[in-house]
């Protein structure tokens, strides 16, 4: 195991452990000045307290963390990890205890271990020397063990957070790759139905399909897209649907303040349209897409005049909502409104973090 763990610590390590060491130092100083004032002078007491604080820090920061890092890389089960934690606390507490006792034996303080123990535990002084050693050591072990439990909890929390970030990243890639079969089947069907009837039309479809696939491949590498890219891919998608007789007969798009629209999850417009058409009883009914600013948010409403099917498919909405969560946390949402005559999706995006999103994209 490399010694770099001594200097390479997490960003919150000193924030949490520093508080623990500070509290320990204050309590140790107050306790020692109160109980040892009858057997030693203040300079002697403070020198002992200072060495005790330093030995506590070195035992925990060097020995305890070193053993923890060694055990962490062995991928043990829960039972073995508990044993490692117990062994670690015993070794750390013993080192801390031995340094303090060595200082009492070799250092400048004039009081002995027995004097210190009787001053701190006058009510139980009538016991053997070995028992005094054991009881004092148990106090050192408890102090070290408390630090180690705190450190283990913080380290485990950071480890699970990293695992969750990796899991979220992998899940996002899977969500982006879910769109490929949809375009592949739609495109192949459109080309197959037109290639024997009109070669120029087939060529146009291939051009639309190539642009759509290019955008599809680019969106598999990033979750972000601007509105111009989304509208271009939507037009290509509608063109393919038109050749398959699955496109709305009337399409109206009106996006006000289009330059202020925040970045969207890639393929958002196609996902919203796919959800509406897949759940519509009559796909050729009118479609309208309107956008406007309201309360520091930009809303995009996609309305289809056909009633929905009895059994709905929400796979596209689930996909899009998850990617909105990755991109905007809880500041964006996708709502569904439906009645007996229409089916509407409302995408709400926060305007105030547009610049931050653009920075991430670049």
Percentage of residues in helical conformation: 55-70%
Assigned CATH class of the largest domain: Alpha Beta
CATH topology category name of the largest domain: Heat Shock Protein 90
Gyration radius, in Å: 34 Å
Number of domains: 2
**What kind of oligomer do you see?**
single chain
Number of helices: 11
Q: Largest sheet at a glance? A: 5 strands, mixed
- Name the CATH superfamily classification of the largest domain: Histidine kinase-like ATPase, C-terminal domain
First and last CA, distance = 39 Å
- Beta fraction of the residues? 5-15%
Order of helices and strands: HHHHHHHEHEEHEEHEEH
Total number of β-strand segments? 7
Name the poorly predicted regions.
353-362
- Name the strands of the widest sheet in spatial order: 2-4-5-7-6
Describe the structure in brief.
The chain is of the alpha+beta class and 362 residues long.
Q: Notable features of this structure?
A:
362 residues, alpha+beta, Heat Shock Protein 90, 5-stranded mixed sheet, two-stranded antiparallel sheet, rod-shaped
What do you see in this structure?
This protein is an alpha+beta fold. The protein contains eleven helices and seven strands. The protein has helices at 13-35, 42-72, 78-106, 113-120, 129-177, 180-194, 199-219, 227-243, 268-278, 315-328, 354-361, and strands at residues 224-225, 251-255, 264-265, 287-294, 297-304, 333-338, 343-350. The strands form two sheets. The protein has a five-stranded mixed β-sheet, covered by helices on one side. β4 and β5 form a beta hairpin. α5 packs across α10 (315-328) and α9 packs antiparallel against α10. It is rod-shaped. The two termini are 39 Å apart.
